[in-house]
Structures are given as C-alpha cells and as structure tokens.
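Q: Please design a sequence for this.
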C-alpha cells in the first residue's frame, strides 16, 4: 500500500496552520509564527526542535517520523528528522521476554549439570 500525505491549510482566528496528515490520522503543521504542532488522537501538542527558534514540520510518515526545517538563529534553516521514542510498555514487554529467556537457559544448564 502506498503511503500518502496531504497538505491542507486549517484557517483559525490566530492565523493559518499548514497541516500534513498521514494514513493514521496524525497531523503535523505550523502557524505563521513558526510554531510547530503535533496532533494525535485529537490532542494538540507543541512540536519544537531543541535549540530551534522556529520549527516548520512539513511531513509525517506512518512510522511517526517527522521531517521539516528548523531555524536555530532566526536566519539560517536546517533540515531535521525526528524519530519517535518507543513506548515504555513495549520496552517493558521486551525486557520480560529477555529475563524469561535468561531464566530458561539457567534452568536448562542447571538441569544438565545435575546429571553429570
């Protein structure tokens, strides 16, 4: 399936917000002042790049990676790619799996050594 994004302006009283929507319904955009935002599940969050004066997120893919431009000094712009951090639940689940595997190997080794 080909991934698609659409860019459409959302007109509000505070200005025009340019928004990009991915297939999952996640939205990124910015206003006329260069304030970036991220919307997931109808919750808006400010989106900034550390050290950036203005942030212009221009695309988001289905993996949640956000690309765009950031100005560090208000004059020069640089491209950025922001990658989401894994959720704590998935990291915890992976940790339990590793602990279980280690316990299984320990018990297997112990049972083999008791036969010798």
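A: Design:
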């Amino acid at each position: 399936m080909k991934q698609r994004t659409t860019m459409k302006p959302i007109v509000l009283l505070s200005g025009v917000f340019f928004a990009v929507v991915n297939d999952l319904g996640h939205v990124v955009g910015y206003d006329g002042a260069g304030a970036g935002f991220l919307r997931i599940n109808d919750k808006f969050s400010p989106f900034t790049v550390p050290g950036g004066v203005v942030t212009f997120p221009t695309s988001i893919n289905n993996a949640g990676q956000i690309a765009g431009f950031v100005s560090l000094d208000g004059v020069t712009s640089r491209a950025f790619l922001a990658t989401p951090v894994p959720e704590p639940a998935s990291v915890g689940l992976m940790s339990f799996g590793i602990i279980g595997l280690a316990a299984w190997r320990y018990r297997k080794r112990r049972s083999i050594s008791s036969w010798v």
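Q: Thanks. Anything notable?
A: The chain is about 25% helix and 40% strand. Residues 86-116 form one domain.
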